[in-house]
Amino acid sequence: MRISIIDLGTNTFNLLVAEILADKQINILHRSKYPVKLGEGGINQNYITDEAQKRAHLAFVEMKQIITSHETAKTFGFATSAIRTAKNGMEFVKQIHQDFDIDIEVISGNREAELIYYGTREAVGLDNEVVAILDIGGGSNEIIIANSEEIFWKKSYPIGMTRLLEQFRPSDPIKQDELYEIEAFLKDKLSDLIEALKIYSVKTLIGSSGSFSTLRQVILAEERTDVKSDQTRYNIKLEDFNSLHKRFLESTLEERMQMEGMDSARVHLMVIASIFINFLVKESELSILFQSAYALKEGALIDYIKALGESEKSIS
Asked: What is the pLDDT of residue 227?
């Protein structure tokens, strides 16, 4: 059976098409992403602008063609922060269904965190160590403290990178006083997270978002290092992150665009994302960073397969 999963993120839409084999193994047939920037221009007013809706519509035209060409049996769409907080979010979801016959589920921050956990656990191969999983989104950030067996603590913070960028509108390059202002804001909003990281003695941070993927791409491009495309985890050395963080703070948008490995769809968010990661490292005992190639959409796929298995057991 073939299924499609669409993650409607605040910054990027992601499409995954997979075949579920008889033994419940997964064969990935297609991956693509679309820089829709759904939250741009209206996220802090809880509104999806007309321009953002037009970009989303164009993305769905292409995704629908891909889904149809793969003859998928089911398509699942998951809407996250930008849509769940928008006054016209449900209207947008209904329009997508009307135009493309695709159902979109608007999920809570807690449900989003759970799906991210399932995907990351699969990619990284968690063990008994208690780790922190971070998905840096445009509208929200999901943090999960867990090991391979259970989630101990999780929370969704409505302070994604697009929200922060539009709230603070930092200079290019960012000024020192602007950096301090953002860090003070994070210290206020994330005090319970910092406490939780210390309570659970977390040393390892695993990033499952596009920002962490961009860090990986830039580091590998500059090192001229080849990593197998099917490698689902990557260790980001702390010294490499610190060096790159310093460069991001000192760079202009144009300079970041010229960095090898930089994702053009994320270039405007990388300074804020780097500040966010660096803040967590500074304020806690985190010393090990990993990037997970899997996130929400892979987690949704794994969750669906699990539900299939439970359904078959109940029938038998």
From this structure: 59
